[in-house]
Amino acid sequence: MSLKKLLALGLVLIFAISMVAGCAPAAEEPAEEPTEEPSEEPAEEPAEEPMKAALLTSGPINDGGWNTQAYEGLLLIEERDGFEVSYTENIKQDDHLNILRDYARKGYDVIIGHGYEYGDALITVAGEFPDVSFAQVGGFAGGEQPNLMAGVFRTGELGYVLAVLAGELTESNHIGFVGAMEIPTLLDEVASIKATMKTMYPDVRVSVAYTGSWVDIAAGKEAAKAMISQGADVLLGIGDACDAGAIQACEEVEGVWFIGWSGDLNVLSPELVATSGVQDVAFLIGDMTTRLMAGDEGDTTVYGIAEGAQPLGTWAPGVPEEAKAKVIGEWEKFASGEYTIDIVAEMIGKE
Amino acid sequence: MGELASVIFTAEFLGNSLRFATPLILAAMGGVVNERTGVLNLGMDGMMLIGAFSAFAGSYFTGNAWMGVLIAVISCLLIGLLHAFCTVTLVMNQVVVAVAINTFSMGLASSLLRTLFGTSTSALRSPGFENIAWPQALQDLPFFGPVLFQQTIFVYIAILAVPTIWWVFFKSTWGLSIRAVGEYPKAAETMGVSVTKVRYLALLFAGAMGGLSGAALSITGLNTFIDNMTAGRGFIAFACIIFGRFHPVGAGLGALMFGLAQGLQLRIQTVGIPMPYQIPIMFPYIITIVLLVAMGSGSVPAGWGTPYYPDEE
Question: How many angstroms separate the CA atoms of B182 and A3, rounded?
């Protein structure tokens, strides 16, 4: 038995190590021990030391959507501003404080919480570390502490622009929306799509379905198939990884378009993803870090089409020119400031 | 409601639901065997995840979907072996081992994905399985064509697995050994059946089925892998075994029912019946539990979840 106990102990250790390895901050460039650093170059020119930025995400950074974009933002500031970057992914809510504090103690200059859910933890930790800068993407915690900046996307604009595209493209007068979950930003876009259709394309029917998951590709595909089987010929989607499933469902039939959000999803299926409403997280992260490093006071900024944060993605070659021109025209009205979000709010109000 | 009925009673709906249920059925058929030998295996989700990943990676690098399946089965056999070694040879707590395997699998699949494929955002697609090329006449059959003859090979494996396991359980001497070991291991041992051997083989079989199940999820159309893509399907398969009263037919029907209910709930949402979307999302779980509880046949193996110490009296 003692040999068995030894083996059991060994296995437990292996599992424990693998768990720790799985959960530990997956530093892209492993953050070196602070004690080693000064020994090499004894603080000759402290200004030469690269600035360090860290990113916290609740999901995997390869989800092809929301979290991937944050990772791209991190790469942007690495390249453009010479930051040394690290990230921790798949973080659970109760670990927010610890991981934020951990990065702050290790001497990171900018720490980014990627999502609404980081608000409270960021406010707390930003108060504890007044010399460290913090940023939140997709939340409103900016300004709660002077060293905390936040940026959110203006929701509803893209819903309007992309709904116009869906209205132009549909021949069956039936469009579908496949979402992951009813979260506030997503609901805003759905409301905008519905109101736009009602006002501008009253004959078009809008179906909505949620998969309940951001990672269940198979469910995304199944939901899209359900829509297609009922006659929808244009699908819009906000579902991160689920979008890939929905796009595949469109690929399996003739003549169904997909319109995506967040990332430029055209790469997933260049013929069939008409275009995407890109929410340029990298732009937000780049802009917020620049302002924080310039010493700006923390605030919450809304980034929309006019600010250059919500461009349209790559177009599929088969989209009719008139439809494309019309949609770009509508987008430009937001970009130039001719339209504001008020026109969307007004349409929703009429319902 | 009329529109909903017209959507549900279609071959397209049944065919898709069958496809959706396939990974669940495969996993449940693997699981039911090891549960019957008395080993509690909550690690099916981890096995599926490793299966889904290795099927995708194998298929991607070899360019052959069958190689993907082979690699998935081999990887999951290793996980099954690990499970058996821990729970049977080392007599470790079966729940703890399963939790460790699930966590380990999730970390392993994510780490390997990053290591092998980097963090590129472009779509990674591997070769995958196409529908079996039945004669066109069969594919075009009204109703039966789309349901039965426009499917990948995994659907047939899953359908055939259910009666096969049933036959093994109740008509073969293997089945007798399996059930005896699960009911009363000491008696089985006295009769000359090696409890260790039966439990090892059962867990290896569960591993192989977990590998197939993962492959059925990742390379039969989706042809990609993302972190945690099983989304808890291994646990659903486990639930189907429990509520199916450890009977292969019960577990298989439970898994099929879950697939149907999943297709149904998405169509309910799409038709636009006004209710919070969380309610249709609950449907598959509720319907599966209610039906399986109502069915009620078979029994829990008496030795379920208890380790067997061959050395001791």
Answer: 26
pLDDT reported for residue A29: 42
DSSP state of A108: -
For residue B90, give the chain A residue with the closest CA: A4
pLDDT (0 to 100) of residue A81: 92
- Chain B neighbors of A219, CB-CB under 8 A: 231, 262, 266
Q: Is residue B312 part of a domain?
A: no
* Inside any domain, residue B313: no
Task: Give the integer Cα–Cα distance in Å for B118 and A17.
Answer: 23
Q: Are A121 and A113 in contact (CB under 8 A)?
A: yes
Q: How far apart are CA A117 and CA A96, in angstroms?
A: 9
Mean pLDDT, 10 residues at a time, chain B of 313 residues = 72 88 96 92 94 96 95 96 93 91 92 83 80 86 85 94 95 92 89 91 96 95 87 91 89 91 87 84 84 70 80 53
With CA atoms as reference, the chain B residue closest to A18 would be B104
Q: In this complex, which of B90, B119, B269 lies closest to A61 when CB atoms are compared?
A: B119
CB A276 within 8 A of CB A263: yes
Question: Is residue B188 in some structural domain?
Answer: yes
CA distance A331 to A157: 8
- pTM for the whole thing? 0.83
The pLDDT averaged over each successive group of 10 residues in chain A (351 residues) is 66 61 45 40 55 92 82 93 92 92 95 93 95 93 92 93 96 94 88 94 94 87 91 92 89 92 86 93 94 91 93 94 95 92 84 65
Whether B265 contacts B280, CB under 8 Å = yes
Distances in Å between the alpha carbon of A238 and those of A11, A208, A210, A262, A277?
A: 42, 11, 10, 8, 10
pLDDT of residue A24: 45
Distance of CA B231 to the CA centre of its chain: 13
Enumerate the residues of chain A whose CB falls inside 8 A of the CB of residue B231.
Answer: 213, 215-216, 218-219
The residues that bridge with A135 in the sheet, in sequence order, are: A112, A149
Cβ-contact A281, A69 below 8 angstroms: yes
Give the count of domains, chain B: 1
Across chain B, which distance is largest between two alpha carbons, in Å?
66
Q: Do A72 and B121 touch (CB under 8 A)?
A: yes
The dihedral through the CA atoms of A318, A322, A325, A331 has a sign that is: negative
Burial B248-280 (b: 16+ CB within 10 A, else e): bbbbbbbbbbbbbbbbbbbbbbbbeeeeebeeb
Q: Do B16 and A222 touch (CB under 8 A)?
A: yes
What is the structure's pLDDT at A23?
A: 47
Strands (E), A42-109: 52-57, 84-88
Whether the CA torsion B254, B259, B264, B265 is positive or negative: it is positive
- Smallest Cα–Cα separation from A16: which of B204, B292, B103? B103
Q: What is the pLDDT of residue B243?
A: 83
Please report the pLDDT score of residue B63 as a whole number. Answer: 94
Is residue B193 in some structural domain?
yes
Point out the residue among A11, A18, A268 whose CB comes nearest to the CB of B107.
A18
Instruction: Tell me which residue range forms the domain holding B245.
Output: 2-119+145-295
The enclosing domain of B156 has a CATH number of 1.10.3470
